[in-house]
Amino acid sequence: MPDIKDISSVSISDPVALQLTDQLQQLIAQTIQDDGPLPFDRFMEMALYAPGLGYYTAGSEKIGAAGDFITAPEISFIFSHCVARQCQQVLEQTGGSILEFGAGSGIMAAHILDYLDKQNCLPESYLILDLSPDLKQRQQQTIENIVPHLINKVKWLTQLPEVIDGVVLGNEVLDAMPVSVFRKHRGQVEEQYVIGQKDELKVAWQPASALLQKAVNGIESDTGILPEGYLSEVNLRLAGWLASVSGALRKGLLLLIDYGYSRLEYYRPDRSMGTLICHYQHRAHDDPLKLVGLQDITANVDFSGVKNAAEQVGFTIAGYTPQANFLMSLGIEELLAPYINVDQQDFIKLSQAVKVLMLPSEMGERFKVIGLSKGLDEQARGFSMRDLSDRL
Questions:
Q1: How many structural domains are present in the chain?
Q2: How many Cβ atoms from other residues are within 10 Å of residue 102's Cβ?
Q3: How far is CA 257 from the centre of its chain?
Q4: Strand partners, 157
Q5: 111 closest CA partner among 165, 150, 157
Q6: Which range, 56-60, 133-137, 317-321, is most confident?
Q7: Residue 41: enclosing H or E segment and its boundaries?
Q8: What is the per-residue pLDDT across 235-268, written as a single tens digit (0 to 9) for each?
Q9: 206-242: buried (b, 16+ CB within 10 Å) or exposed (e) per residue?
Q10: CA distance 213 to 183
């Protein structure tokens, strides 16, 4: 987890940003007034996705040096070429399309299309499902800049297609799904709510909903009874999301890349304050009630929960592995080799970027990849070197 920074001294001078966060806080306050205290997952949903006001739906730049965080496809095109190799293996079995959830700047889509074009293995179409209007514009521009002749392959969606064969991609998608926050208090499970108090948003605790209680019971049956005062989070929306994707994916692979742990690691007794984290201008902190609508709010992924929910809706676990092993299985060293003889400074930059993707102290171990398949016969190549799915 990144170092936690103090943001108490952060001041917002941009009048547009101030107006957006003001309007969003008013909307949240009105919702609390109308409906009562908001469960944290509902607050997180509004903070990130409220139409025109939420972090992902308003117009601020989010990804890259000028934004709040940098993703693997932004670090190097080599990452996307590795993902493209996995897509190629699946497309050769299934035909069909690629669907990407939350395509960010569009850089991964552009580099996957570029690689597959050179391999004569283009999908029927490259579908992007993204809730952010400004990111859609940025994606179009990125793709037109890198592969202008393939822009007609790309289609933007507002909902899942009824049927798809091929590959579904989610790079850093699950961590941005709203989570419920719970704590153990006097032997009971309590749920975190957000309330309005003197024109401020505050935290309150109430007895957990039946659904949250059931989820925590499941966690404790796997990990042991959580200690008094233990606070963490759980994604209660994951099962429904996976069911929707499974209903659409007829034959192919759902590939999810994110930071997280197996359940035993996630809910360790010493990880007693959960994993919820906020990002604002490359600073990480742990107060989601600050900078509402202007900051990202994320939580790590419980990959055991992903496996359990996926198997219940018809997926087969194709593999689970750290990002470094996934990239090595797909030949990252081979993809890097042709650049050795190019400009030395360029090669040094490329090598340094690959180190960020691969090193355990960077993204190599912290980020994991899980593959969920339907109707595939071959082992997914990305998990050939090291498959840890038996630890989930």
A1: 1
A2: 18
A3: 7
A4: 129
A5: 150
A6: 317-321
A7: helix 40-49
A8: 999 999 999 999 999 999 999 999 999 999 999 9
A9: eebeeebbebbeebeeebeebeeebbbbbbbebbebb
A10: 11
Q: Is residue 4 part of a domain?
A: no
- Of 102, 18, 14, the closest CA to residue 57 belongs to 102
Placement of tokens 């990305």 in the chain:
382
At residue 44, what is the residue type? M
pLDDT digits (tens, 9 = 90+) for 163-193: 999 999 999 999 999 999 999 999 999 999 9
**Is there a contact between 81 and 113 (Cβ–Cβ < 8 Å)?**
no
Q: Is the pTM of this model over 0.90?
A: yes
In a domain, 44, yes or no: yes
Q: How many alpha carbons lie under 13 Å from residue 107 in its C-beta half-sphere?
A: 16
Burial state string for 61-100 with b = 16 or more CB within 10 A and e = fewer than 16: ebbeeebbbebbbbbbbbbbbbbbbbbbbbbebbebbbbb
Is there a domain that residue 329 lies in?
yes
Look up the domain containing 161 and give its range. Answer: 17-392
**CATH assignment of the domain containing 324:** 3.40.50.12710
CA pair distance 188, 104, nearest whole angstrom: 40
Instruction: Please report, in angstroms and rounded to a whole number, the separation of the first and last CA atoms in the chain.
Output: 21
CB 20 within 8 A of CB 294: yes
Q: Which tokens sit at 356? A: 């960020």
What's CA 114's distance to the chain center, in Å?
A: 23
